[in-house]
Amino acid sequence: MMNGRRPTVRIQAIAENPGRFIVLFNTEFFNATYALTFGESVTGALALHRFAKMIENQYGKQVNIQLSGELLPFRSEAVKDILTGLGVTETEKSPAIG
């Protein structure tokens, strides 16, 4: 399915909705994109965590997370904690996501 690669999710801000973000996961097998929108809050952090774990459980591999550069630093400690738990450090930035 993934040819040995880790599944990658991309997180970017929703321009017209400050404090809201979208997480995207493209699956080649189904030729589909799964998406989650969440706010920078405790419940948003939990939604992000569950989304990442859902993908990890499906593919049996840790999710690789790409953050759009303008997202750092997150204001919410809950979101920071979840990202840290998923292996993302505060200083990581991905190339521009288009």
Structure at a glance:
This protein is an alpha+beta fold and 98 residues long.
User: Beta-sheet strand percentage?
Assistant: 25-35%
- Gyration radius, rounded: 13 Å
Tally of helical runs: 2
* CATH-level-2 architecture: 2-Layer Sandwich
Main β-sheet description = 4 strands, mixed
- Percent of residues in helices: 25-40%
Strand neighbour order, sheet with most strands: 3-2-1-4
Q: By helix and strand content, what is the structural category?
A: alpha+beta
End-to-end span in angstroms?
24 Å
Q: How many domains make up the coordinates?
A: 1
Identify the CATH class. Alpha Beta
Element order, helices and strands? EEEHEH
Number of strands: 4
Overall body shape: globular
Low-confidence residue ranges = 91-98
What does this structure look like?
- The protein contains two helices and four strands, in the order βββαβα.
- The longest helix has 18 residues, at 42-59.
- The protein has a four-stranded mixed beta sheet, with helices on one face.
- With 98 residues, it is of the alpha+beta class.
- The chain is globular.
- The chain has helices spanning 42-59, 77-85, and strands spanning 8-13, 20-27, 32-39, 64-67.
- Helix 1 (42-59) packs parallel to helix 2.
- The chain has a single domain, classed as 2-Layer Sandwich (Nucleotidyltransferase, domain 5).
